[in-house]
Amino acid sequence: MLKMNLMNQPNPYLILVSPEYITAIIKLNEKLEGKNIDWVLGGDVSEALQALRVQPDCIEVVTTKEGTEKIHKAVEDLEPEAINFQVHQLHRNAIINEKEYPIYVRSNYFEFSVDSIRVKVHGDLQFRISDWAWGDKFEIAPASVYVVGKKTFVVPLYVQYELYQSLGWLDRAEKITWVIANRERLLLRKPKLSNT
Asked: Which residues are registered as beta bridge partners of 86?
């Protein structure tokens, strides 16, 4: 029997997300639907839904401060933590001019679980490198993907690419470049016509 590692499958349209994440995203969509909340999926799950080969360890939601409060209310039955204004350091440093600097994020933050999947909610998310000034609040025009027929908003790949480039995370930026370049290549490929 031929075994294949799908995480290395070179297809920029093949989306590989574990079933438990798909189920959790569907349930999250159902909880937030019709509540007039601006939110997008971010982090690894957003990238995985856009065909990057990453393995998420949680679902990250990016919203506004007001959105954080509305999401908290919408998921009350899931016993979310209290909303806190939080600053924490990322596990990975920025690499700028071959020097490493710590990266901090701050947001109105809380967590909860959908089944066994941890969901992290960030309202008015901002980034800071080392002791530099805080960046602007993370606001984007979202991209959309369909999760089992349900339109779901995600952080667009080009936004993630720009973020990774600015942080010096070239490995992550290269994954995005590969997906985008190969999608374009496949779209531009002309079908071969047969003479028979």
From this structure: 107
Examine residue 133 and state whether it is found in any structural domain, yes or no: yes
Q: How many domains does the chain have?
A: 1
Q: Kindly report, residue by residue over 143-164, the tens digit of the pLDDT.
A: 999 999 999 999 999 999 999 9
β-pairing verdict for 117-129 and 143-147 = unpaired
pTM over 0.85: yes
pLDDT at 40: 98
CATH of the domain at 88: 3.30.460.40
**Cα 136 from Cα 142, distance rounded (Å):** 17
* 4 falls within a domain: no
Residues in Cβ contact with 109 at an 8 Å cutoff, skipping those fewer than 6 apart: 68, 83, 84, 85, 86, 120, 121, 122, 123
- Domain assignment of residue 172, yes or no: yes
Distance CA 118, CA 179 (A): 27
Residues 26 and 148: beta-carbon distance below 8 Å:
yes
Q: Is residue 190 part of a domain?
A: no
The tens digit of pLDDT for each residue in 170-186 reads 999 999 998 888 877 66
How far apart are alpha carbons 99 and 104 in whole angstroms? 16
Domain enclosing residue 121, as ranges: 15-183
